[in-house]
């Protein structure tokens, strides 16, 4: 059981949680994620470790409520708990002194890009952050990203904040101005990451994307997160989640991510009829776990 010590909405449907997980907090590196389960019958979902405090023994996750489990998670408050949390998983981001690094976060991708942007800055890079959202109220982590970047550009699709347009418009502007760009990291919806890859391909700018493929076990055993790159088939959970953007088959990624769309929609529909029932399951599972820690069968994080 992993206690939630703080929880706050950053935008509609986007919530930041601070969770007690001392061993994960001590080991995690930028780019890694956890897989958690909310209750005894819940599904396992991957979430990036946005930050950690090894002294306090806590990690931060930022969650966008898109389906049943993320919407249920976003109903939890400080004092509630998550039943299982495994991590840190995945390969850490490659952090080097590249020179000028452009870090792009689209939507909740800003939360996933934040820890890597911070590590790139600490490694001595000149970091240009581009944060994009559909509209003003969906821009997240503006202050946090400003604090760890040298330049911050904000775009909204509808022009309600920052510059109207897409993150790729800003990226193209930087490249076409003749400024030297040594490294690009893009995290967001697959089609956004694909557009970034196309914007940098001709100039051969090293470009990395973090893939949100469907995950189940997170250990390379189930095959759920298989993606195709020019190097062949890879598993995002153990070989990634970051990959060379110019080699990724984005069409296949999109196709595989839509595979269970019908079942996901049905499960969300049923959940929304009685969300309090699932909330009760989370609280009951955690209460039982607290009363009978000896009957746990799941492994604790390493
Ligand atoms: C390495 C990694 C890190 C991630 N980090 C974050 C994060 O920091 N914050 C955040 O809000 N989201 C993150 N995600 C996405 C998050 O895991 C999904 O939104 C979540 O699993 C959706 O579950 P659901 O039951 O709420 O929705 P569902 O109804 O099950 O699905 C809604 C959509 O979410 C995606 N999805 C569903 N199940 C999974 C799964 N097991 N793994 C990956 N994607 C799935 C699918 O595209 C689906 O269409 C990350 C995904 C990966 C792979
Ligand atoms: S999540 Fe099962 S192989 Fe990656």
UniProtKB/TrEMBL annotation:
Sites where the protein binds [2Fe-2S] cluster: 222, 225, 237
Gene3D superfamilies, alphabetized: Nucleotide-binding domain of ferredoxin-NADP reductase (FNR) module, Translation factors
Cofactor: FAD; [2Fe-2S] cluster
Ligand binding (FAD): 62-64
UniProtKB keywords: 2Fe-2S, FAD, Flavoprotein, Iron, Iron-sulfur, Metal-binding
Cofactor note: Binds 1 FAD per subunit.
Name the UniProt record assigns to this protein: Dihydroorotate dehydrogenase B (NAD(+)), electron transfer subunit
Gene Ontology biological-process annotations: pyrimidine nucleotide biosynthetic process
PANTHER family, A to Z: DIHYDROOROTATE DEHYDROGENASE B (NAD(+)), ELECTRON TRANSFER SUBUNIT, DIHYDROOROTATE DEHYDROGENASE B (NAD(+)), ELECTRON TRANSFER SUBUNIT-RELATED
Residue ranges of domain FAD-binding FR-type in the record: 1-95
Gene: pyrK_2
Gene source species: Aquisphaera giovannonii
One example GO MF annotation: flavin adenine dinucleotide binding
């Amino acid at each position: 059981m992993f206690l939630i010590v703080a929880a706050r909405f950053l935008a509609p449907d986007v919530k930041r949680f601070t969770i007690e997980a001392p061993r994960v907090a001590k080991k995690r590196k930028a780019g890694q994620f956890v897989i958690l389960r909310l209750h005894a019958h819940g599904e396992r979902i991957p979430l990036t470790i946005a930050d950690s405090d090894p002294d306090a023994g806590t990690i931060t996750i930022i969650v966008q409520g898109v389906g049943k489990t993320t919407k249920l998670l976003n109903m939890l408050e400080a004092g509630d708990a998550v039943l299982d949390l495994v991590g840190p998983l995945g390969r850490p981001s490659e952090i080097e002194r590249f020179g000028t690094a452009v870090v792009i976060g689209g939507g909740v991708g800003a939360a996933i890009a934040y820890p890597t942007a911070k590590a790139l800055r600490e490694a001595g890079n000149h970091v240009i952050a581009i944060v994009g959202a559909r509209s003003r109220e969906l821009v997240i982590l503006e202050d946090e990203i400003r604090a760890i970047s040298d330049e911050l550009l904000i775009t909204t699709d509808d022009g309600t904040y920052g510059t109207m347009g897409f993150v790729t418009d800003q990226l193209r502007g930087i490249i076409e101005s003749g400024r030297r760009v040594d490294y690009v990291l893009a995290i967001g919806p697959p089609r956004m990451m694909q557009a970034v890859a196309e914007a940098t391909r001709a100039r051969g700018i090293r470009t990395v994307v973090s893939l949100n493929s469907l995950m189940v076990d997170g250990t390379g055993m189930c095959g759920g997160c298989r993606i195709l790159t020019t190097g062949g088939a890879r598993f995002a959970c153990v070989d990634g989640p970051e990959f060379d953007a110019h080699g990724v088959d984005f069409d296949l990624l999109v196709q595989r991510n839509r595979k269970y769309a019908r079942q996901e929609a049905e499960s969300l529909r049923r959940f929304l009829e009685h969300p309090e029932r699932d909330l009760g399951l989370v609280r009951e599972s955690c209460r039982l776990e607290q009363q009978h820690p000896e009957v746990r069968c799941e492994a604790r994080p390493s």
